[in-house]
Amino acid sequence: VQLQASGGGLVQTGGSLRLSCTVSGLLLDHYDIGWFRQAPGKEREGVSCISSSDGRTDYADSVKGRFTISRDTAKNTVYLQMNSLKPEDTAVYYCATEIGWECSEIAKKSADDLRNIRYWGQGTQVTVSS
């Protein structure tokens, strides 16, 4: 199983980026996918996720209304459209999945929850300048 995250970059406050997570070795129809981020000196946190069964989505309050997660099952790729970016969105963004991992209350995932996720993308840096 491999996850390849891409699309990060440097943008100004208010700008947009679209992250991509291309998955190989498993099908999006069967695995929920999450996006996480880690800012310098902070713990990794859940940002958004999408359910394999019905495409249901969940977002952290800090990104609700600005970020949109979607998937293209034909390309086995999950996207994170990020609009109205703020300096506090600066972080390394990771996509991840695990057998049996469920997309629910993404922002409440504990450090233990994250440690139980085996499959992570390599991370893509997002930097928002003020």
Which descriptors would you attach to this protein?
130 residues; mainly beta; seven-stranded mixed sheet; four-stranded antiparallel sheet; 1 helix; 11 strands; 4% helix; globular
Layout: helices, strands, pairs:
Blueprint: E1 2-6, E2 9-12, E3 17-24, E4 33-38, E5 45-50, E6 57-59, E7 67-72, E8 77-82, E9 91-97, H1 111-115, E10 119-120, E11 124-129
Parallel strand pairs: 2-11
Antiparallel strand pairs: 1-3, 3-8, 4-5, 4-9, 5-6, 7-8, 9-10, 9-11
Summarize the structure.
This protein has one helix at 111-115; strands at 2-6, 9-12, 17-24, 33-38, 45-50, 57-59, 67-72, 77-82, 91-97, 119-120, 124-129.
Low-confidence stretches: none
Radius of gyration computed on alpha carbons = 13 Å
Could you state the order of secondary-structure elements as H and E? EEEEEEEEEHEE
Amino- and carboxy-terminal Cα gap: 37 Å
Category by helix and strand content:
mainly beta
What percent of residues adopt helix (DSSP H or I)? under 10%
Note down, in words, how this protein is organized.
With 130 residues, this protein is mainly beta. The chain is 4% helix and 45% strand. It is built from one helix and eleven strands. Strands 2, 4, 5, 6, 9, 10 and 11 form a seven-stranded mixed beta sheet that branches. The protein has a four-stranded antiparallel beta sheet with strand order 1-3-8-7, with no helix packed on it. The protein is globular. The N and C termini lie far apart (37 Å).
